[in-house]
Each structure stands twice: as C-alpha cells, then as structure tokens.
Write a structure and sequence with these properties.
Elements (H helix, E strand, L loop, with lengths): L6 H18 L3 H7 L4 H9 L18 H14 L1 H21 L2 H12 L5 E4 L15 E5 L2 E12 L6 E7 L9 E7 L5 E6 L10 E12 L10 H37 L1 E2 L2 E2 L4 H29 L5 H26 L10 H9 L8 H13 L1
Parallel strand pairs: 1-4
Antiparallel strand pairs: 2-3, 3-7, 4-5, 6-7, 8-9
Helix pairs in contact: 1-4, 4-5, 4-7, 5-6, 5-7, 7-8, 7-9, 7-10, 8-9, 9-10, 9-11
C-alpha cells in the first residue's frame, strides 16, 4: 500500500493550485454575490485540459487517471466550487458516460469538443418529481420514424444555459418502469427546447443551475446511447463516478476553509497572544485536520479503485457521504475560528460554508449514499 503521489500527480496538483490562485481567486466574491457564471475561467480550464482530464488523447482528452482528476478538483474547489462543479459535471457525468458507452460516431462528434473544452456538457436526470427516486422519470421520448419526440421538464441542471451538449434521461416505454428508460444526446438551441431562469441558490451561486423544458423536441435515433432501456443503468453507472468528483469537491471546500482558519489563527491575537496558542482553537484545528485527512483517504481510495477497474460504487458512496459531512463541519468551525470576521464575505469562509451544503444533496443525497452503502455491506 503506497501513500505517496507520483511526480505526475504532484505536477497536476501544482498546476491546479496555481490556476486556482491566479485565475479563480480574483473576483470570486463578486461572482458569488452577483451569481455570475465564471465563463472566462471555465474557458481557460478547458484550454488547460481540466474539462476532459480522463478522456483518451484520441478524443482530445488528457488521458489521466482518476487520482489526477480528484487532485485537481480538490485544489480548484478550495477557491471556487462554482467553477469546479462545471469541471466535475463535464468530466464525470458527460465525458465519462460518452466515452464508456457512446458509439464511435458519437465520440467523434460530441466527445472530442467536450473533452477539449470547446463546449460544455450537461447531465439531465433530475425532474420536479424525480430527484432521489430516479426511476420516476416523466420526461418521455417517443419514437417517430428516424427520430424521437422529447417532452418533459428537467430540474437543477448544472451548466443548464452554458452547455451545448446535453445527456437527457427519458422514458421510452413507461410500461417497463426503470427498464424502459433511455438516454439521448441533445444539442442545445433547437426548436421546442427552453431554458428556464437561473436558480437563486444558497451556495455555488456562480454555477448555472436551470430547469429545462422540452416540447416536441426532435432527437435523431443515432443520438440514443446504447439500446432502448439502457438509460437507468447508464445514469447509475455514471453517478457512481460522479460521486467521486463531488466528494473531491467537498474535500477541497473543507481543505480551503481549514487553510484559511489556520492562517488566520496565527495572525489574530486575543489576550496578548495569537489565538492559535489557545487550546480551544488548537483543538478545533486538530479536529479539522484529522477529519479532512480521513476524507482525503476515502476519496483517494475510491479514485484508486476506479483506476484499477475494481467495483468502486460502495467506496464512492462512502467518500461522498463522509467528505460532504466534513465539508459542513469544517466550514462551520472555520467561521467560528474567525469569529465575527468569519461572518462577512471578505474572509471567504462564509461562502465556503454555503458552498459545502450542496455536496450533501446533489448527485445523490447523503440519505441515498447510506442506502448504497448499506446495500453494499448487506449483500
């Protein structure tokens, strides 16, 4: 068992850390306040290869392993989770599913521009009545000659208005339940495709989160991924990897808050000495550091299992469940270490706390992760 990162991993980590400090940090508070999508920053992420890290080079990707991906996610999430979630969705939910299950023609046409960062992708599963219960899909796709007719609504879609390529999960045969669900590649901007208003969110406010409405939208048959009825399996397999990305995001949010709290504790004085010399603060920092390291090991293990071709569904659920809880706990304590200053935007930690909460909700709530874990240990 090895705990040291390779030189390649360290280089990726350093590059991501530098990018976060030089490109994401400037203006991050203003983007959060104004709920402004980090368009220029995401474009630069694409140019540097962050949006297709694990895709094979033949499809314009970086050909990197999952460990490299979570290292980059952690560093970017320390500064701006609104930007890192774009990276997570594009890598884990869109590119991975297309490369794993798409046809060669689909990879040539859609995966290449996604992996190179030329365009952004979106993963469309959640609906008004189908969040945690992904089997209850109401969006329908009816076959009509050489195309399908898509009707329905999707909710909480990351990159909703910024994406050009959408993976849409829809019901093609309601009589078969979840076995009648299929998945389609939809290009944005077509007739009958409407993007709703941007959601006004607690955290990750810069991220583009929208509802999408489909009214008689035509999707070519060749844009179906796999056979009819493959959609639910596609979604669940894709989310297994997506949870690793969100776990890494939660880890980064926690680590970012801890680093700010640690630095502040050495500068802020109370009762004639830095507050880091007071045992109450020392114990907070010790707890924060310990839980972050535990979360990090869970995230790395899930990534390693994925790279080894092993079953990682159980590990990814554990990583997301624990890392998201750590993100909440650590960001709250980071505010406490900052005292009154932690409650104002200038010191960043209040934003990190707001960003942390969503990691317990999207790509499977903490309650869903416990279901996955319990099934794994009881099988």
């Amino acid at each position: 068992m090895h705990f040291q990162l390779t030189e390649e991993h360290l280089a990726v980590q350093d590059a991501a850390r530098e990018f976060a400090k030089t490109e994401l940090l400037p203006g991050v508070i203003e983007r959060d306040t104004e709920a402004k999508f980090p368009k220029e920053q995401v474009q630069k992420m694409g140019e540097l290869g962050f949006l297709g890290m694990m895709v094979k080079p033949k499809y314009n990707g970086g050909g990197m392993d999952t460990i490299s991906y979570v290292l980059a996610m952690e560093e970017l999430s320390k500064i701006d989770a609104s930007a890192s979630v774009c990276m997570s969705v594009n890598n884990s939910l869109v590119c991975w599913g297309l490369e794993k299950y798409g046809s060669e023609a689909q990879k040539e046409k859609y995966l290449k521009p996604l992996a190179s960062g030329e365009v952004l992708g979106a993963f469309c599963l959640s609906e008004p009545e189908a969040g945690s219960d992904a089997t209850s899909q109401q969006t329908s796709a009816e076959l009509s000659g050489d195309h399908y007719i898509l009707n329905g609504t999707k909710n909480w879609i990351t990159n909703g208005s910024s994406a050009s390529i959408y993976l849409v999960i829809a019901q093609t045969d309601a009589s078969k339940g979840h076995k009648g669900i299929s998945v389609f590649i939809l290009e944005g901007g077509g007739e009958g495709f409407v993007v709703g208003k941007k959601e006004d969110k607690l955290g990750i406010r810069g991220s583009d989160t929208h509802s999408l409405m489909f009214t008689d939208v035509k999707v070519p048959v060749e844009n179906r991924i796999g056979e009819e009825g493959f959609g639910f399996t596609f979604a669940m397999e894709t989310l297994n990897g997506g949870r690793i990305g969100i776990a890494a995001q939660a880890l980064g949010i926690a680590a970012g808050a801890y680093e700010l709290a640690l630095a502040y504790s050495k500068e802020r004085k109370a009762f004639g000495k830095p507050i880091s010399q007071h045992q109450a603060i020392q114990f907070k920092l010790a707890d924060m550091a310990t839980t972050i390291e535990a979360a990090r090991l869970l995230v790395y293990k899930a990534a390693w299992l994925k790279d080894q071709g092993e079953d990682y569904s159980h590990a990814s659920a554990m990583a997301k469940l624990y890392a998201s809880q750590v993100a909440m706990d650590v960001t709250i304590e980071a505010i406490q270490v900052h005292g009154g200053y932690g409650y104002v935007k200038e010191y960043h930690v209040e934003r990190l706390m707001r960003d942390a909460k969503i990691t317990q909700i999207y790509e499977g709530t903490s309650e869903i992760q416990k279901i996955v874990i319990s099934r794994g240990i009881l099988r």
